[in-house]
């Protein structure tokens, strides 16, 4: 089970801009279509597997994505309460605070996981690529000090999300990429994205908001794999609707034994900032 962005992110939320940077070592594009925003999702149990042991679930996922001129910040907080048919109740959750540079070379992250047994864990560090984008390293400060080499072509969460929307807009899905977000065993995973349906700007929407008006969107399916190539099954899967301005709705988060549904309940634009240097 992967608790994380975005994530993603991992996060497990996908976010995207209308214009795509070149990735590590590349030059950033303008982000005219990007809508800095805060979104809140109500979580519920969509499906119970493994004999149907899960009876109910309720929770909340809060997500914020902002442009800070030199890069993007992502803040995510999630808490889920679940109960089995036998009456056992438990909670789990996670929070993420991350900063990713606009050129895709640097990524700072702080993740806190709350486990069903009540214990918690913090993961903190920074990852970076050299100017050519060929050498990458992730340095973890917590829960222990260690380093991890990143292969050329590895993307950070926002850069991966941008690549997703570019591929969807150009009808170039499926798309496979290796992504580093700091979560899981070593912070890396492989993600395969496939297109389920492309929707026109006037297609019906489950949540009414001026931010979603006249926006193209795509229903995507994402499968997240660990780095062990001998394991063919994904650790986690998602289905979601991604809008061209970076907003996500209609999410299903598949953790294997159960599936959570995330319904958009609040959506608001964040104030724009002036990045011009006088």
Give the H and E element order. Answer: EEEEEEEEHEEEEEE
Count of helical stretches? 1
Mean pLDDT: 85
Number of self-contained structural domains: 1
The largest sheet is: 14 strands, antiparallel
What is the topological layout?
Layout: E1 37-48, E2 54-67, E3 71-84, E4 89-101, E5 106-114, E6 120-129, E7 136-142, E8 146-150, H1 157-169, E9 175-180, E10 188-199, E11 217-225, E12 236-243, E13 248-254, E14 258-269
Antiparallel strand pairs: 1-2, 1-14, 2-3, 3-4, 4-5, 5-6, 6-7, 7-8, 9-10, 10-11, 11-12, 12-13, 13-14
How would you describe this protein?
The protein has one helix spanning 157-169; strands at 37-48, 54-67, 71-84, 89-101, 106-114, 120-129, 136-142, 146-150, 175-180, 188-199, 217-225, 236-243, 248-254, 258-269. The model is unreliable at 1-32 (pLDDT under 50). It has one domain. 38% of the residues are buried. The chain has 278 residues and is mainly beta. A hairpin with a 3-residue loop joins strand 7 and strand 8. It has a 14-stranded antiparallel β-sheet with strand order 8-7-6-5-4-3-2-1-14-13-12-11-10-9, covered by helices on one side. It is globular.
Q: Which keywords apply here?
A:
single chain, 278 residues, mainly beta, 14-stranded antiparallel sheet, 1 helix, 14 strands, 50% strand, globular, disordered N terminus
Short précis:
The protein is mostly beta strands and 278 residues long. It has one helix spanning 157-169; strands at residues 37-48, 54-67, 71-84, 89-101, 106-114, 120-129, 136-142, 146-150, 175-180, 188-199, 217-225, 236-243, 248-254, 258-269.
């Amino acid at each position: 089970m992967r608790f994380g962005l975005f994530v993603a992110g991992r996060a497990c939320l996908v976010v995207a801009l209308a214009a795509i940077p070149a990735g590590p070592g590349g030059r950033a594009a303008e982000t005219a279509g990007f809508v800095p925003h805060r979104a809140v999702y109500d979580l519920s149990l969509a499906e119970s597997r493994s004999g149907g042991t899960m009876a109910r679930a309720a929770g909340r996922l809060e997500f914020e994505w902002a442009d800070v001129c030199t890069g993007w910040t992502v803040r995510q907080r999630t808490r889920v309460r679940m109960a089995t048919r036998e009456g056992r109740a438990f909670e789990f959750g996670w929070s993420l605070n991350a900063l990713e540079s606009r050129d895709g070379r640097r990524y700072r992250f702080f993740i806190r996981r709350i486990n069903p047994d009540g214990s918690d864990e913090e993961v903190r560090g920074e990852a970076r690529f050299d100017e050519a984008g060929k050498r990458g390293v992730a340095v973890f400060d917590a829960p222990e000090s260690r380093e991890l080499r990143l292969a050329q072509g590895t993307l950070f969460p926002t850069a991966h999300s941008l690549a997703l929307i570019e591929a969807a807009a150009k009808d170039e899905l499926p798309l496979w990429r290796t992504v580093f977000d700091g979560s899981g065993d070593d912070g890396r995973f492989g993600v395969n994205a496939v297109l389920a349906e492309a929707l026109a700007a006037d297609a019906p929407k489950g949540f009414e908001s001026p931010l979603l008006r006249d926006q193209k969107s795509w229903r995507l399916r994402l499968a997240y794999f660990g780095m062990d190539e001998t394991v063919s099954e994904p650790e986690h899967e998602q289905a979601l609707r991604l809008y061209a301005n970076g907003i996500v709705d209609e999410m299903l988060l598949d953790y294997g034994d159960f599936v959570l549904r995330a319904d958009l309940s609040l959506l608001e634009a964040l104030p724009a900032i002036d990045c011009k240097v006088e």
